[in-house]
Amino acid sequence: MKAHKYLTGAFFAVICHVFLVSAQQSATRPPDVVYVPTNEKVVDAMLGLAKVTKNDTVYDLGCGDGRIVIAAAKKFGASGIGIEINPELVKLAGENARRVGVAERVKFVEADLFKTNFSRATVVMLYLSPGVNLKLRPRLLKQLKPGTRVVSHDFDMGDWKPEQTVKLDNATLYFWTVPAKKPTL
Question: Which strands, in side-by-side order, build the sheet including 164-168?
Answer without folding.
Answer: 106-110, 79-84, 57-61, 123-126, 149-153, 171-177, 164-168
